[in-house]
Each structure stands twice: as structure tokens, then as C-alpha cells.
Amino acid sequence: MFYLIIDILGTIAFAISGVMVAMDKKLDLFGVFIIAFVTSVGGGTLRDLLIGNTPVAWLKDPTFLITILSAVVIAIVFRNKLKYLRKSLFLFDTIGIGLYTMVGIQKGLLIGLSPIMCIGLGTITASFGGVIRDILCNEIPVIFRKEIYATACILGGVGYFLLRKLPITDAYPYVGGIIIVIGIRLLAVWFKIALPSIYKN
Amino acid sequence: MFYLIIDILGTIAFAISGVMVAMDKKLDLFGVFIIAFVTSVGGGTLRDLLIGNTPVAWLKDPTFLITILSAVVIAIVFRNKLKYLRKSLFLFDTIGIGLYTMVGIQKGLLIGLSPIMCIGLGTITASFGGVIRDILCNEIPVIFRKEIYATACILGGVGYFLLRKLPITDAYPYVGGIIIVIGIRLLAVWFKIALPSIYKN
Amino acid sequence: MFYLIIDILGTIAFAISGVMVAMDKKLDLFGVFIIAFVTSVGGGTLRDLLIGNTPVAWLKDPTFLITILSAVVIAIVFRNKLKYLRKSLFLFDTIGIGLYTMVGIQKGLLIGLSPIMCIGLGTITASFGGVIRDILCNEIPVIFRKEIYATACILGGVGYFLLRKLPITDAYPYVGGIIIVIGIRLLAVWFKIALPSIYKN
Questions:
Q1: Which chains are adjacent to chain B, needing at least 3 Cβ pairs under 8 Å?
Q2: Which residues in C lie closer than 8 A to residue B137 (C-beta atoms)?
Q3: ipTM attached to this prediction
Q4: Residue B136 included in any domain
């Protein structure tokens, strides 16, 4: 129940971030919906394709589609007020990537992948929806250029596997991993920390 | 036999639309062929990947490859005359998306998906070849910006499921759905109807 | 052992080519790594998705990840010296696409695909990592515009199937195919041969 609420909040935050990018490009109604949809489910879909978990989840469970459709309609209606929600949306988004990272890691563990690959799957789950969104909007993905985003996912994943070595029940590492992702992202934004750009001198 | 002819005509129309976009970008021979190929089979390929129907269809049946290769060669040879075929190509393309929508819906029904997801698969089948074409050509997909295209697929799919509720044999809803897709697209182009763009005031 | 060394050299060359493209776009550390990674494994990943060979290879074998990570770190540290390696990197890259073409063909033969589709899979394996790299960097893929690249793969594949008709052990066609790919690419670069661009007069 608790996880479900986080999942729904994350899905909504991702969908609205898609709506906002799509509006900047002046896409039509269908385009806005597709961008919102891929931002929300794109990462999990890529993960499921890579591990062969098909049909992909959103085809079997209409919850995602209905949630995203509702979020898109509401976001479009209140599109001139979204700026007042900026902080809430950032928070939902951050909680969402924390949860998605852990969901991706669990999927990897279920099929017996090594921790490093599980962390990779978690990072893909949390961050590649945004990558596909940016590609469809003809932009170089923002997470390749600035912001601590994927880095937070990777470190949260590392934290999860370290915590799992302690003699505690499995829920603690799970929640601990989410908290690490959220904490690093908040600190990075707070202190304006970003990965260095790489270019020739 | 009837469906096969429509399928071949649709494949050809999609391939030639790919050739025309690729020529605008002055791609080389290989680039033109790849763009034509993904325009034709990209939607069905994405659908098959999402539902886990692999190896994807065109790997198992060389008909698509041969049809597309022939269409590309002919389109390149007569590239300065293609404008005279604009209306025929538009018609083939429109018939093609009608058929592809129904093909996608059938694939969804076969694996027991809900009607709404079947309609989604049909729309992906009919319209995402063009999306991949535009991404490879470094453009924001045209169907996200203007034209009633995906909307026609969605409404045709809704029509199909409504017609299926009537006590008639299954061929009628199938053909009915195709006719709805074609009709809406023709009306939209005729009356210059497009979805509204969404942007901040 | 011999193939493994070629494979590692090819992976490294592909990864460094990714680093160089990513540096031109001034991506951050994560972006550079992802571009290097998809350049190396993107073609094989797309091939595995199309034939349903999942989980994809790099999830199961950390060799690729470790090789690419090491290559990225070294390439970044020595980023101002990479130009002195231009010729070696071109050679590794060329040997790499020769090998990757044959690897893709073998995967197709294993699941009983026709020679023409096996050649398609080989070409995808060798050249679509670069396509995904360019898409993520918001460029029209370079292999659609200039350079004999995919063409060398296709002709190497044709050579392989022709050589297989001779009464010789299977290693000869395999190595023969690689040599054909390498030879055509070197000749094309040497004599500055490219496919013709296609556009309206």
C-alpha cells in the first residue's frame, strides 16, 4: 500500500515533467500524452525489454495508463499554474526515482543478475524514461549533461547492497536505498553539485 | 489475398514516405534504405518487442524486405516524379494505417490484452514507424505536432470494439474499423482539422 | 582466445569512439560513459532484442562493462592525446566491425534465419551501436550520410555465405568474411569512396 502510493506519486510526477517538456515544444494533444507516457514508463519498459520480461508491465495493468491519462489532463488544464507546484513535483520526482531504482534492482535479483548489473537495471528504470522523452523532443538527454540524477541512483543501489550485508530484515536496505537516492539528489540540487563535463582542453 | 494486397500497398506507401523524408536530408543509399525500412516495419517491430513476439516478423519472412527494397529502388529511380503520385501515395498510406491498426489489435487480442491496450498496440503498429523515421532523421516526430493520424487509429480501434458487440461475423468489425480510420483521416485532411497544440499562455 | 582478443579490442575501439563523440558534445561523466557503452554494445543489444535472445548478453557477463569502464577512464585521462591514436583506433574499429558482423551472422544461423536476414543481423550488430550513439547525441547517424561502413558489413556477409559453399572447414569462411569487411573498409577510406547521396535534382 505504502509502495503503491509512492509509485503512483512518482508516475504522476514523471508524467507531469513530460507534459512540461512537451509543452515547451508546442506538441499537440497526442504528442503531449505520448511524451508524458514514455517519461513515466519508458525506463521500466526498456528494463523489461532487456531482461525479456514481456509483455511489458503497462500492457497487462491499466493502472499506469489511467494514472498518466488523468495526470496529463489535469496538468494541461492547470498548465499555467504548474510553476506553483514546482517544489512538490521535484519532491515527487525525487521520491519516484528512489523507488524506481529499487524496483529495477529487485527485477534484476529475481533473475539472478550480479549486484552491479542490478544497479544498472535500477538506474535504467529510474532515469531512461527521461532519456527517451528528450530524444523524442529532439534534445540531448538532460541527464547526460547536468544534474546529479543517475549518479544518485547508482549510489543508492550501492548503498542497498551494502546494507543488505547487515543482519537486518530486507525492508531496511530497500528503504535505506531509497533514502540515499533522495538524499544525494536533494543535496546535489541544494549545493548545486553536478558531474564534471568532459571535453578536450 | 485481399488483406495481403492492402498490406503490400501499405508497406510500399510507408517505404516511399521514408524515401522522401530521407532524400530531404540528403542521406546516402544505405541511409535511404534504412529509413524506408524502419518507416515500414518499425511500428510492427516495436509492437512485437513490447509483447515479446520474437524473432520479429520481418526476420522470418523476407516478403517485407524484398517489397521495401523494390519500392526504394523504384522510388529513387523516379525520385523527380514522386510528386505526381502524391495523392495515390497518401491513399495507400491511409489504407495502410487502417489495416496496420487492425493487425495490431488482433495481436493484442491473441495474447489476451484488454481492449484499451489492444487499441494502443494498433496505434503503435500504425504510427510508430513514422516516429522512428523522424527520430533517425533528427526531427521531432510529425505525428506529435500536427495531422490527425494516431487519433484516427485510436477512433478506428474504438469503432472496432463497438462493432464487435453487434451480432455480426468478425470480418465486419475488422473492415469497419479500417473504414473508420480511413474516413477520419480523409475528413481531417479535407477539412484541415488537427489536434490543438498545447502550450503555456 | 584469438576471437576474444579481437572482441576486446573492438569493444575498446567502439567505446573510445563513443567517448570522442560525447566529448564534442561536452557531456558530463555519466553521459560520456553511457555513450561509450551504447556505442560498444548497442548493436548487439538491438540484435538480441530483435531475435528474443534475453536477458541481453552484457547483463549476464560483466566483461563488457568492465572493459568499457576501463576504456572510458583511460580515454578521459588521456583525452588530449587521443589524436595520436587515431590510426590504431581506426584499425581496431575496423577489425571490430568485421568480427561483429560475423558474430551477428552466427546468431542468425543458430535460430535458423535465412542468409539474407543473417547478413542483416550482422550489419545491425556491427553498425547500430554507432546509430544509437548518434541519436543520443542529437545527430543524424553518420553511417546514413557518408563512409562505406554498413556496405562493408553487407559485402563481408555475402562473401561469408559464398565461401561456405566451398568444401572447406567453417573457420575459413568466418575469417574470410572478416577480411572482406576490413579490406573493403580500408580500400574505401584509402580511395575516399562513399555511397552516393540521394536527393531530388
A1: A, C
A2: 140
A3: 0.92
A4: yes
Residue A164 lies in a domain: yes
DSSP string of chain A, one letter each residue: -HHHHHHHHHHHHHHHHHHHHHHHTT-BHHHHHHHHHHHHHHHHHHHHHHHT--S-HHHH-THHHHHHHHHHHHHHHTTTTGGGGHHHHHHHHHHHHHHHHHHHHHHHHHTT--HHHHHHHHHHHHHHHHHHHHHHTTS--GGGTSSSSHHHHHHHHHHHHHHTTSSS-THHHHHHHHHHHHHHHHHHHHTT--PPB----
The whole domain housing C122 covers: 2-190
Chain A positions in Cβ-Cβ contact with residue B153 (cut-off 8 Å): none
Give me the average pLDDT of each 10-residue run along chain B (201 residues).
Answer: 76 89 90 95 96 94 92 91 80 88 94 96 95 94 86 96 90 92 92 81 66
Number of folded domains that form chain C? 1
Chain C CB contacts of B49 under 8 Å are 49-50
Q: Is A135–C137 a contact, with Cβ atoms under 8 angstroms apart? A: no
Determine, yes or no, domain membership for A196: no
Query: Which of B51, B56, B114, B144 to mutate against chain A (most A CBs within 10 Å)?
Result: B144
Output DSSP code: residue B103: H
C197 three-state secondary structure: strand
Burial A119-147 (b: 16+ CB within 10 A, else e): bbbbbbbbbbbbbbbbbbbeebbebbbeb
Does residue C198 lie in a domain region?
no
With contact defined as 3+ CB pairs under 8 Å, the chains touching C are: A, B
